[in-house]
From TrEMBL:
Family as reported in the entry's similarity comment: Belongs to the peptidase S28 family.
GO aspect biological process, one term: proteolysis
Protein name, UniProt field: Peptidase
Phylogenetic lineage: Eukaryota, Metazoa, Ecdysozoa, Nematoda, Chromadorea
Source species of the chain: Pristionchus fissidentatus
Keyword Signal: yes
Keywords: Glycoprotein, Hydrolase, Protease, Signal
Family matches, as Pfam families: Peptidase_S28
GO terms, molecular function: dipeptidyl-peptidase activity; serine-type exopeptidase activity
């Protein structure tokens, strides 16, 4: 299921395809961009122009990496994950409800794996931080809606918090996380 959900997000929000289209690799181009576009078309009926507009919409809505504007988010990254260089790993000027965590000694998605006794303490601590923030938001301590101006235009982007009914659904889906720590 996780693979299907991730594929849906790449087709509708992220793009984020790792291809060999550059053409300078020693193996040619066995993984071209059109492979991923074909996948989106076949599985979800999503053509390339929809993928492109979805990426633009996500970057506009959340500000991209340079102007990230979401709230009530934990952003865990492992310092051994090559993708952490593209992630948000420091608080900087982010909203206080955004919690970046750089987890020492871990790789990609380590925080999502089942807990083990031999996990590094940094990973155990990160899971506690993640769970505590989710509990706080589910108990109503989430950031209120706000507006932010983009590119000095009069057009405004309104980012709203999740409704209480959606929070209940999220709580039910995340309940197994509590068993990990």
């Amino acid at each position: 299921l996780a693979g299907v959900l991730w594929t849906w997000q790449t087709c509708n929000e992220f793009g984020y395809y790792q291809t060999t289209d550059y053409g300078q690799g020693i193996f040619g181009t066995p993984v071209p961009l059109n492979l991923f576009v074909y996948q989106c078309e076949q599985i979800f009926g999503v053509p390339m122009d929809h993928i492109e507009s979805g990426v633009a919409r996500s970057n506009y809505q959340y500000g991209g990496r340079a102007r990230y504007s979401a709230t009530n988010v934990v952003l865990p990254n492992g310092n051994h994950d090559p993708w952490h260089a593209l992630g948000i790993t420091e608080q900087g000027k982010l909203d206080a409800s955004v919690v970046p965590i750089l987890i020492d000694g871990t790789a990609h998605c380590a925080d999502m794996y089942a807990a083990r006794d031999e996990d590094p303490q940094s990973l155990k601590d990160a899971r506690v931080t993640i769970l505590n923030n989710i509990k706080k938001w589910l108990n109503g301590e989430f950031h209120k809606p706000f507006q932010t101006e983009r590119n000095n235009k009069t057009e405004r982007l309104k980012v709203t918090t999740t409704s209480a009914s959606n929070l209940s659904l999220i709580a039910a889906l995340l309940a197994p996380l509590a068993l990990l720590i």
